[in-house]
Amino acid sequence: MAGATRPDDGACVLDTGALEQLIELLRADGYRVVGPQVTDGAIVLGTIAGAGDLPAGITDDQEPGRYRLRQGTSQALFGYAAPAQGWKRFLFAPDETLWRAERTDGGFRCEEEPPAIGRTALLGVRPCDLRAVDILDQVFTRSGVVDRRYQARRAAALIIAVECTQAGGTCFCASMGAGPDIADAANCGADIILTEFLVDAGPLLLARPASARGAELLAGVPGWRAGAADCEAAAEAVKGAARSMGRQMPADVATLVGRSLDHPHWADVAARCLGCGTCTAVCPTCFCSTVEDSTDLAGTTAERRRRWDSCFTLDFSTLHGGPIRSSGAARYRQWLAHKLAHWWEQFGRSGCVGCGRCITWCPVGIDITAEARALAEREGRTDANH
Amino acid sequence: MAITAPLPLPASNPWQTSPWRISHVRRELADTFTLTLDPPADAADAAAAFQPGQFNMLYVFGCGEVPVSISGTAGEGGRLKHTIRAVGAVTGALQRLRAGDVVGVRGPFGAGWPIDDAAGSDVVIVAGGIGLAPLRPAVEAILHARERYGRFIVLYGARSPEDILFARDLGRWSSRLDTFVDVTVDRAAGAWRGNVGLVTALIARVGLEAEHTVAFLCGPEAMMRFAVGALAKRGVEASRTYLSLERNMKCGVGLCGRCQLAGHFVCRDGPVFRLDRIPNVFQVREL
Q: Contact at 8 Å (CB) between A144 and A199?
């Protein structure tokens, strides 16, 4: 199959060897290629040297508060659901120095710390996570003041998305309209869209260019022009993921949460919630941050660092020495109401993409889809009582 | 190698703080002081164009940064006053600074009082404690164009006679025949001959025509909750009632997410809000 010719545009089919060459091509072009790999019993995102670093044959079991890897039934390269982490760390640094300042005669001088940003190829971005990147793009670059560090990293990123062919137990992207397929290739934010399907010889990847850069890259790797059978096999694989999706979010969740801010169910969640903030750390769209100012011991130089922050900390809402959201119920409500309801007022859409990470990685297994349903059910009961 | 080479950044940087020199420090109350700050030449135009109700982020070298509303102007060249109560580490450090010292300033940020939109209406200002600070430039702006407004009323409440902020300004405004000023304190010793009680009592008895009145409020949230109730009782609609809110802020430009209040970023959409656009603020606890 290698060396087969195909037209300059349109979809083509790659085997593992061709994917390897695509990665080599990117590396030769100065890209750091980041992709999923198995580390410490989880699929995490890190620099990969080649296709051999991908978790071939590995699959995951995800349930509320539970994550396990096991050997899958095929040699699929992407036969698992959302990896443990989202991709935001590669675009929005978890901890970085914004500027440094130095005392001068009668004052100080403040100089921006130039961020170390290089070309980065994000390989294996799932539809939910691709939607999350677009949401972050909107927050940081399309809503007034631009975060130029984010914008610079985003501009240096190339995205190779992978449609989902296996849904996890906590996934609900279909009900958020974020997956498991990528409907609008031209405007999805990716450069190349891959869809994995299995044949007797092993996994194959249907590759669609989604940008001029993506088309250029695909022209440089050996594949063959996708036929109807290839496209059908890929589409069928994605449909399987849609059918096996573990969870779903109620359709009217935004208005439901918006009118439930005084609901007694928040206290019920708070009794279970540890307030650890893991959900905000794994959420691919949570963007809140804090800054920390410090000096050296002599007090002659100072710096400002920005770190990811969580609305579950008391410090987050502290005003005049005390937190506004002192109860766990208020902090949980802030997180969920922002994500599902207030995000609409701020950005005209939901802040949730249905990746299910907040459910999987919650140490006590709180499930936002179940909490949303509980709000609806208890609301129904309250109405019935009146 | 391309991986570590820095790429050019887009032009504007909202995090860049610029050094302003303290030209004057005034002790207002036991724990409250006003810094008059002189902008560097490249910030003077933006400073001079500030809107009453806007705030700046003030940075003390190595210590931290806090949002402080602009409490007045001082001559030409964008020189701005900031009135601060020392309650935490950064405001405490600001209190220790002297004339000639330098603070970092970012701003001005946020949405201010609708001074122009209120033209043609009666204006009632209700302030509590240090809440008078962001309202002082609004009062001055209205007095500066007094003929554009109808009746002008300033109601102010403080904890005690010793806690009355800007007493000199209140006296000056009060001495004008075209401005009604009424002051009350929560509690007082024998020497006080003025009102004792809550600012809501001043609202209850002041002469106002609700349908022509625009209200501006700033003070502790508990005070504002009762004050908007008292104004509503007098018939002032929520769509004509504006209040300045405060939340924990880090960036000042809607990026850090800290100051969220339901669907609003207080730093960017506020700090001055029209009451009917923030209907939950006094109804839902710990919002």
A: no
